[in-house]
Amino acid sequence: MAEATLSGAIHPILENDYASEWMGIKVLALSDGHATIRMTLRQEMLNGFGMAHGGMIFAFADTAFALACNPVNPAPGETDSITVAAGVDINFLKPAYRGQVITAVADRRSSAGRSGLYDIQIFAADADAQPDPQNPGELIAEFRGRSRTIPKK
Amino acid sequence: MAEATLSGAIHPILENDYASEWMGIKVLALSDGHATIRMTLRQEMLNGFGMAHGGMIFAFADTAFALACNPVNPAPGETDSITVAAGVDINFLKPAYRGQVITAVADRRSSAGRSGLYDIQIFAADADAQPDPQNPGELIAEFRGRSRTIPKK
Amino acid sequence: MAEATLSGAIHPILENDYASEWMGIKVLALSDGHATIRMTLRQEMLNGFGMAHGGMIFAFADTAFALACNPVNPAPGETDSITVAAGVDINFLKPAYRGQVITAVADRRSSAGRSGLYDIQIFAADADAQPDPQNPGELIAEFRGRSRTIPKK
Amino acid sequence: MAEATLSGAIHPILENDYASEWMGIKVLALSDGHATIRMTLRQEMLNGFGMAHGGMIFAFADTAFALACNPVNPAPGETDSITVAAGVDINFLKPAYRGQVITAVADRRSSAGRSGLYDIQIFAADADAQPDPQNPGELIAEFRGRSRTIPKK
Known about the structure:
4 copies of one chain form a homotetramer. The first copy, chain A, contains 2 helices and 7 strands. By secondary structure, chain A is mainly β. Chain A has one domain: Hotdog Thioesterase (Thiol Ester Dehydrase, Chain A, Roll), CATH 3.10.129. In chain A, strands 1-2-3-5-6-7-4 form a 7-stranded antiparallel sheet, covered by helices on one side. In chain A, strand 2 and strand 3 form a beta hairpin. Chain A starts with a strand and ends with a strand. Chains C and D meet through helix 1, helix 2 and strand 4 of C and helix 1, helix 2 and strand 4 of D. Strand 4 of chain A pairs antiparallel with strand 4 of chain B.
């Protein structure tokens, strides 16, 4: 799949996902249990220390998590349920800075019944390094997400 | 302390904290090891399910965490270090919706050397319920933050 | 309730709980969503650094968690399900040593449907300090448990 | 390395590690940042539900974590420090039962300064299935450990 701007044509959960749209997320790869996304760190994503706000790193990784959890093409029996984050353990390993390009790679680790466990790794690279999925830069955070599948309202 | 719009006059770490400014966070209370903040959930904070994006709940709580971790008036020996998030475990208990007012209450649980542990509870209430710190609404998430104090660059 | 040696007369889940029996756990208090327990750190609970093995601190806290999660007197509709640990985030704050008396205090933080969140604090005191529930000693670890209620096999 | 009963000859941190000795842990593989260990679930490791006590699964994984964190042959500058668990996030995916053989595989994910992050996967297999490191059975738990290197007392 070519680099695609985030939209409902890419994945049904991206329809009306205003937060991901605001972040300017691009989808690099998408398959069952997997997603790779990318965005550039802008000024509004910084904290008072001049580093990327942990919450923005989290929000970015959380979008990769949601994409990996929910099927791109829901099967007939799956259209009335959604999979959401029940909880997350995140470890911040290194800071990231304005203008850097960050990449999140989400993968399912296990799944049983309505519960799943996903690992999302977040990498940062300088913009002029033109990062690609094969070499997304330095590992800056490890996000482990716990999912729950619930009935759609 | 009266309800105050987020600014560097309130706390030094809020100077140039563009992410918190973008969120429209207000500071309700602030003291050593403690902070209470509030914001209203806007459209750009929603995910594709029409609920508050987990990343936005996290980013909001993370600001309360940073305020509780760092002294309002640093002592002479504290001006050359900052306290940042090393990691977080968050549990999402209930969804929150557009227009709701959410409140985060951060408290230090323990601190030893350069490490600390903080609990941040996040509550949601309907806007017309005029939530106050004494009754901030329903508990929607529990955030446990691990802090590290590091030299300022 | 007086200090009681762990047994099935105290709580149905303690019947045949060989691990808790091996640890020599005593139950100090027990009510819906709450448990306080105590044990003495023995040689078999130490790691190669001469400190309590983290796994033993965890196992001890996990028993308090199980006691707080499961009703002492199950209601008619509750006898065919059990509540187990789905996951835990634990932070080790201080070491504990052989001969110290450790106390775990478990409390429910929230509960919705089949999921619950419990906090267990673990304290250590020297044996001759004769710790009591009102003053169980120094906080050595914070355990946050995520529970799931499942059908009994 | 051939299957070896846990002892100080295998790794210095195992000297006087009474907890691991009590568990009957065997070391299958050991190298910088990595360890694979195995044990059989005995009656004293069960909870009141007849399943392996979560605390015993944790204690077992915690030993693999300690082995992966600490060098087998400390360099001259490393002999006066030890690496311990600062915290852990564990997810219990499936129950394990008496008589099953469980295997823990520990690997370093990242390391910076005095902090490290390690993933330990725990697998279970029936005893007559004669599990080997290449096929250790079903994944029953995921343990993510946060380490801190501290001065030796």
